[in-house]
Amino acid sequence: MAVAPHKVLLLDLASNINRVPSNYIRPISDRPNLDKVDSIDASIPLIDLHDVTGSNDVVQQIGRACKDYGFFQVKNHGIPDEVINNMMQVSREFFSMPQSERLKSYSDDPSKTTRLSTSFNVKTEKVSNWRDFLRLHCYPLEDYLHEWPSSPTSFREDVAEYSRRIRKVALRLLEAISESLGLERDYIDRALGKHGQHMALNYYPPCPQPELTYGLPGHADPNVITILLQDDVPGLQVLNNGKWLAVNPIPHTFIINIGDQIQVLSNDRYKSVLHRAVVNSYKERISIPTFYCPSPEAIIAPAPKLIDEEHPCQYKSFTYTEYYQKFWNRGLAKETCLDLFRATPYI
Q1: 22-72 confidence digits (pLDDT tens)
Q2: Would you kindly state where each structural domain of the chain is located, as residue ranges?
Q3: What is the fold, at CATH topology level, of the domain defined by 39-341?
Q4: What's the CA gap between 298 and 193, in Å, rounded?
């Protein structure tokens, strides 16, 4: 087996430097401008999911959040604190392992369904991002569990339990989003084919010059919805009305954002919103997004019920594989690739 090059991960490089290497430095026109970010505690809605299946009010709250922000936070989601704490702890343990142990999972081949890598797409990007990540496919769980790292010892057990529970939350949210659009409760569920689910364990080391780079630059997610667990270190920022808002972590809540596929299914009623991760000079940050997706062969198109004279069809139909390949090849620099699938050229 080929040995990965020395210090292939940012984690191992960042511990010994006091300046950002040139390949991480953004052009002046594309820097975080951290002093221009609004930081308010109630920057996006916080929704109580306790009665999501029996309350039209919760459905309406979710619909308003999707329409006005593209983002919301949820509490009383049904996942025990212990499951969340175990997930965060085992993620921290994974990135704390010796380099030789971590690199057993390393690959820069994006077709691998379990892989440790760095930045975003090391083969195509011009400027690197200040993060390492472990990507895991996790539905159907039995198809992928054997590929996952076997160290730390509780890794597979803890991550599998978290994956099962987060999927239940995703399905409840998709039902509520369907209802909020005036569609059948199971409309989005059926539109996703056999479904797909994967997650990233993102590790952002302390950065000596955080104003020069990004953990991840502004981008919209290509999937259906993303459910984000983050530790207590701020870093997520959301674009709203032309301004970046810092979303400060609230323990044991999740941050939800709708992805490009919801924008298509909703025929532009709901918009997939740009967001980014910034870094800091004082403390590592871990975030764990779960990406809920259509299965590769699922055909995505606007819901017929949401097309009328006032709302003409905005997108041509496509398979999720077609969409994801374009997203991956373009990278995060282009922000979104929805316009490539417009029913008519977008002007």
Answers
A1: 999 999 999 998 888 887 666 789 999 987 766 789 999 999 999 999 999
A2: 39-341
A3: Jelly Rolls (2.60.120)
A4: 5
